[in-house]
Amino acid sequence: MKPLLLAALALLPECPYFYEFFPDPVEVPDNEGEYLIVKWENSVVPWDTIYLQMDNNRASAVYVPPDSFFTELLLHRGAPEACPAKSGLLCLPLAGTALPNSRASVWNLRAGICRDTAYLPVPKAGMFIRRIENGEWKIENSSDFNSDSVLTLDSLLSFYGEIPLYISEAAPCPEEGIPEWFEVSNRTVFAFPLNGISDCKAKTPIRTADSIKGRSSILITKDSTDLRAFLQTGEIPIYQIPIATLKNLADTLRLCYNGIKLDSVMWGKAVNRQIKCPSTESISPGFVPRISNQAKVLQISERVLARSKKNSMLRVRINSEKTIELRLIDRGGVGIVKKTIGVQEMNSSWIAIPEWRRCQNGPCFIHVQGEEVDETAAFIVRP
After folding, report:
1. Does 294 score more than 80 pLDDT?
2. What is the pTM of this model?
3. What's the burial of 322, exposed, middle or buried (CB within 10 Å: 0-12/13-18/19+)?
4. pLDDT tens, position by position, 118-168
5. In sequence order, which residues have a C-beta less than 8 Å from that of residue 301 and are 6 or more positions away?
């Protein structure tokens, strides 16, 4: 097959292509942490198997369910829980030969009539090899993607695979003598810069060169001295900013990164979550991020939706055996739609949410709540 035809096939929207390699992680053992990413544009594809080959090694086959909404394949070497939970992402173990750390390599891909080849340079420890716009492969440091001048919610979703930080715990009504605080956890395996983190109301956000490590947590409060005295330990990272006073009966706590809304937590009668004062709930600040190893209850089909595309459709899948309350919430915390989803409707697989077009441009949220279920997923609305 001629090279020009091969290049054309690689550009077809249903064709998979190599996107990123991470051959030499430095913070984990040699047999963990490596991964490669393959992407394609359309979720409906005329093939069901991707064949991958490194150098002259034997090709390996990866099965992709044809009726799924996957548009990205991440093959990783490590524990199963290291896989990020992301709609549209198929995450599988990386089998076979380890990725070379000290030499260049050539990777080939085929799926149906589609073909792609990646000519990788010699890796560098702890750095990614990513395909750039002109099709060449470039070695990048993760910090290159954290510049305040270029980071947007779109790029957060693109680089981390999901919104990386979330509010994992909050104390709006603590015991007497304990300042209000909330916990922020990093759901990804990558470090994330803390400079610019706030509750979306503080005039002065966190100003630091520190980062929140992957799969770890920090605490944010307006009085770090009193909170440290209460915790009686120096192991938990605490950051002090003038967070707004939280209302006990009903309020919304938001998390922002340089003005970008990343997450929110609501309580009160309207959302069927009432706070006891003083709080008697069990707390575990800073030590164990509340990231479940179980499959997420809520999945969404798309992370970015464009109003200009008439066929853009938001669908959700809810994995629960109990009735669930679903809410569509705008970026300002305003409820747009409230629905009760029964078990029978959930069993019909994906559920269409056409009301997404009522969201403002920017981030919008799907929130589901029920017995032992309380999850939020974000998506972006474009003009």
Report:
1. no
2. 0.44
3. middle
4. 999 999 988 889 988 777 899 987 544 433 344 556 556 655 656 788 888
5. 43, 69, 87, 88, 313, 314, 315, 316, 317, 350
